[in-house]
Design a protein that fits this description.
The chain starts with a helix and ends with a helix. It has one domain. The protein is 78% helix and 0% strand. It is globular. It is an all-alpha fold. The protein has eleven helices and no strands.
């Protein structure tokens, strides 16, 4: 089967296409993950973006696996499993391949932390989720250093556009959260118990006032 793939399929084209598709899917997933934190994205929009982020990240990992396996099977690249799985050990393209390997591991951690978020807890899930940024940056640099990314103007523009998009949405999200501002309250700040007591007394006063008004309006028989 492996020999048939090498002999009859354009493995070098598969390597390039699968790498670009995996990168673009990861870009969409990271973009949605950041966009859902915008204060305006509440309720159903936030839930939809989270759902699509999860749906997109797994295909990105699957296409990345195809990219990795085809690199191993291709006669032209002739990488060993050690060079593919241990970062920065390859004899050629050491930097780009090493960054791709690290990004692959980062994506794997992000995926499993998302699936185990109920067991890991919110704090650890948030910590692992931050790995999406260096994972995306590693794949971006990996793509730009490869032959298809460095020699093709359209590909370079795609990498620049996606990179600036993630940076832009991150800055926008931070600015909107910063300028959201605290809630304005008049008078001394009350605790939750004091606020509840104050609310109950207001209800009592309202009932008493209503009863007095009713007594005044009903004539004596």
């Amino acid at each position: 089967m492996a020999q048939w793939i090498v002999d009859y399929l354009p493995t070098w084209n598969i390597i390039g296409i699968s790498g670009v598709v995996a990168y673009f899917l990861l870009f969409v997933g990271v973009f949605l993950g950041v966009a859902r934190r915008i204060p305006m994205a509440k309720g159903e929009p936030r839930a939809v973006m989270l759902q699509w982020r999860t749906r997109i990240i797994w295909p990105a990992f699957g296409v990345g696996m195809i990219h990795l396996l085809t690199l191993y099977l291709d006669h032209y690249s002739s990488f060993t499993w050690r060079e593919l799985l241990i970062p920065f050990t390859a004899s050629v393209h050491r930097i780009s391949l090493g960054l791709g390997t690290l990004a692959f591991y980062g994506l794997l951690i992000v995926l499993f932390s998302s699936d185990l978020r109920n067991k890991l807890g919110r704090k650890w899930c948030s910590t692992f989720r931050v790995l999406s940024y260096p994972t995306f940056a590693g794949l971006l640099i990996h793509g730009m250093l490869t032959e298809s990314g460095s020699g093709n103007v359209i590909m370079r523009l795609m990498y620049v556009f996606t990179g600036l998009s993630v940076i832009g949405i991150t800055i926008l999200c931070g600015l909107m959260r910063e300028h959201k501002g605290p809630q304005i309250t008049i008078g001394p700040k009350r605790s939750a118990s004091e606020s509840m007591t104050h609310h109950k007394w207001n209800e009592v006063y309202g009932l008493v006032g209503t009863a007095k008004l009713r007594d005044k309006t009903i004539p004596n028989e």
